[in-house]
């Protein structure tokens, strides 16, 4: 039971709260994935090249990271519900403005602003899950992620349908979706059960508390590098499937949906096993699958095997990435009871900050094949393996 701004009590069960939180988090993947099929059209419409439009994804991630930096500590000080309403309202406004973009520069600026303000809504979700699930936080993350994965599964297909009208229709859809979620959050989202955070700590002291926590650092680094691999996929997937392997838009949507289905399966598996094995062992399981599949992906692209082999290694690899991500985040957040928003911001800043580098890195090593992508995926996962190995050695000492 919790209070709204007008003093009315709201009782929300997990059966309602989890889909609501997932709908809030889904704002970001919808904003990222829906316009992927429109990238070639956007390049033509704004009379620019494809790399410029591809880098709009990196700009979105950068805006989101900077937004997290500002609102993370604020979410530990001010009501979470208020932050969500501000973030969703801002996302709606900039989605509408994007419809009227006339140049590539306007489009990039508005995407940055759209991402920046949306962070206010999303940053409070992990803290809410941690509050409800406590030591089973990874299970809660997986439930929300599993529901939220419906968004990226259908997003490219919705984007393709919207393109039958215009690219502007994609942002009309995003505006409508964010308004519906805003209304649902206003009516049903409860305030925190307990006051979150120590209000006496200032903005930078909150970051100092999180960043000085030695046992959380390696898991934060692991989460960051897993995210680099994830956003390398998001940045490159259109190019790999539609340009390197010449698949049609409909086939691209099916392949993307199969990958998201693999992610959902991985999250469901995590919800079944994490309460018995714990997040650390699930992290090790995901990492072992990830290293194997990333090595396979690198090999089949080096040998220039057909599309089937890339798909066969990429789908389980993305599933392993999802397992690693939710468990790394859970292990970090469990270290912080009063700075959950700041810890979420640190994870998000590093995650989306390094994710924004995926586009420039891949552009720098561009050779017309999927090999640079495969190598970036492999190197990211291998470094996570080394980080977790260091963690294991420290524990044994």
UniProtKB/TrEMBL annotation:
InterPro entries reported in the protein's UniProt record = Efflux_drug-R_Bcr/CmlA (IPR004812), MFS (IPR011701), MFS_dom (IPR020846), MFS_trans_sf (IPR036259)
Topology with regard to the membrane? Multi-pass membrane protein
UniProt cross-references to Pfam families, sorted A to Z: MFS_1
Q: Which GO terms describe its cellular component?
A: plasma membrane
Q: Which UniProt keywords apply?
A: Cell inner membrane, Cell membrane, Membrane, Transmembrane, Transmembrane helix, Transport
Its subcellular locations are: Cell inner membrane; Cell membrane
Which residues does the UniProt record annotate as the domain Major facilitator superfamily (MFS) profile?
8-397
GO MF terms, alphabetically ordered: sodium:proton antiporter activity; xenobiotic transmembrane transporter activity
Choose any GO biological process term that the UniProt entry carries and state it. Answer: xenobiotic detoxification by transmembrane export across the plasma membrane
Q: Does the keyword Repressor apply?
A: no
Transmembrane spans = 12-32, 52-71, 83-102, 108-129, 141-163, 169-189, 220-244, 250-270, 282-302, 308-328, 340-366, 372-393
Q: Which family does it belong to?
A: Belongs to the major facilitator superfamily. Bcr/CmlA family.
Question: Could you tell me which NCBIfam families the record lists for this protein?
Answer: efflux_Bcr_CflA
Can you say what this protein is called? Bcr/CflA family efflux transporter
Which organism is the protein's source? Thalassotalea marina
Q: What is the lineage of its organism?
A: Bacteria, Pseudomonadati, Pseudomonadota, Gammaproteobacteria, Alteromonadales
């Amino acid at each position: 039971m919790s209070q709204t701004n007008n003093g009315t009590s709201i009782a929300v069960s997990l059966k309602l709260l989890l889909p609501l939180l997932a709908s809030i988090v889904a704002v970001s993947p919808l904003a990222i994935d829906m316009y992927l099929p429109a990238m070639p059209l956007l390049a033509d419409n704004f009379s620019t090249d494809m790399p410029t439009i591809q880098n709009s994804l990196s700009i979105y991630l950068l805006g989101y990271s900077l937004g997290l930096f500002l609102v993370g500590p604020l979410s530990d000080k001010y009501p979470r519900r208020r932050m969500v309403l501000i973030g969703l309202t801002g996302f709606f406004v900039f989605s509408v403005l994007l419809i009227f973009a006339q140049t590539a520069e306007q489009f990039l600026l508005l995407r940055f602003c759209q991402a920046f303000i949306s962070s206010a809504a999303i940053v409070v979700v992990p803290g809410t899950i941690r509050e409800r699930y406590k030591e089973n936080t990874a299970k809660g993350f997986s439930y929300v992620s599993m529901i939220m994965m419906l968004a990226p599964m259908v997003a490219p297909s919705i984007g393709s349908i919207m393109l039958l009208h215009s690219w502007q229709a994609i942002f009309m859809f995003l505006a409508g979706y964010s308004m519906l979620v805003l209304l649902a959050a206003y009516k049903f989202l409860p305030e925190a059960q307990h006051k979150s955070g120590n209000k006496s700590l200032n903005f930078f002291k909150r970051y100092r508390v999180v960043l000085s926590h030695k046992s959380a650092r390696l898991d934060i680094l692991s989460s960051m590098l897993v995210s680099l691999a994830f956003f390398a996929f998001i940045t490159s997937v259109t190019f790999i499937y539609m340009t390197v392997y010449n698949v049609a838009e409909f086939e691209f949507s099916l392949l993307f949906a199969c990958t998201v289905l693999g992610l959902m399966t991985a999250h469901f598996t995590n919800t079944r096993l994490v309460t018995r094995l714990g997040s650390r062992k699930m992290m090790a399981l995901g990492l072992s699958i990830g290293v194997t599949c990333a090595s396979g992906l690198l090999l089949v692209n080096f040998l220039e095997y057909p599309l089937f082999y890339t798909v066969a290694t990429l789908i389980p690899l993305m599933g392993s990435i999802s397992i690693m991500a939710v468990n790394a985040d859970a292990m970090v957040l469990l270290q912080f009871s009063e700075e959950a928003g700041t810890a979420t911001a640190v994870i998000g800043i590093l995650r989306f900050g390094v994710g924004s580098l995926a586009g420039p890195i891949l552009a720098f090593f561009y050779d017309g094949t999927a090999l640079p992508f495969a190598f970036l995926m492999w190197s990211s996962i291998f470094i996570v393996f080394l980080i977790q190995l260091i963690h294991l050695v420290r524990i044994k000492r």
